[in-house]
Amino acid sequence: MTARRLWRTLWPPLLVAVAVVAGWQLVAQFAIRDAQVLPEPSQVVSAGWRARGDLWQNTVPTLRETATGFALSFALSWLIATAMDFSDAARRAVYPLLVASQTVPVIAIAPLFVVVFGFQLLPKVLLVALATFFPLAAALAEGFAAADGDAMRLLRSMGASRWQAFVKVRVPGALPFFFTGLRVSITYAIGGAVFAEYAGAEYGLGIYMQRMQGVFRIDLVFAAIVVIAVLSVLLFASTYALERLVTPWRRYEPRRGEG
Question: In angstroms, rounded to a whole number, what is the distance separating the alpha carbons of residues 198 and 207?
Fold first, then answer.
């Protein structure tokens, strides 16, 4: 990506971010006028910098829970989407359960997971996986179903097995769908870990915000929220870099608005 194209991509969200921060500053300074309710952005940055050691200490567990849970979600989504593609019976049996799994709010079942599995890593990993699994699996299943039928038939007529045709045609064809699902689910990953920590944890950004709220350090609560937002944006942006690495052929496809 050229510097000019990068700038054209970045300046609209940067402009919106500046407008949001400016509005926050004006509301906090002239309307609320109470740092215990809404601290100014400068106060949040200053408090976060002074507490950077504690913030980092609590960020590491949240990242570990997010990475482990998302890895589990990634593996399960590929396994189940592949099974659904190979078997109509598996699709009919599993897909309704995938949809049903999204009807239960994570925040409602997080305490149950903590009661059953304790305060260690496992309940957080399971909740992150539950929060991120459906977009990945659904996107992959749709991508497999949208594969080029003519290419599949051509390979099969040349003696390729179903698995070989799946790897050569259906998997590459499903990758754009997969990365769309990945971008949706990655935004839920850290949120799932934070909800799990709210329900019960020793360290993590969720329990850190809960503790700071309890001692009325709203500035540090906002500082933790900023850290979560920055991490989520970085994870979201990393999906584009990964997509360019995994699907290099898409660089030569016409972009939207081009002929």
Answer: 5
Instruction: Please give the class, per CATH, of domain 52-249.
Output: mainly alpha
Domain spans of the chain, in order of start: 52-249
Q: Give residue-wise pLDDT tens across range 79-103.
A: 998 888 888 888 888 878 877 777 7
Q: Residue 59: is its pLDDT beyond 90?
A: yes
Question: pTM of the predicted model, to two decimals?
Answer: 0.81
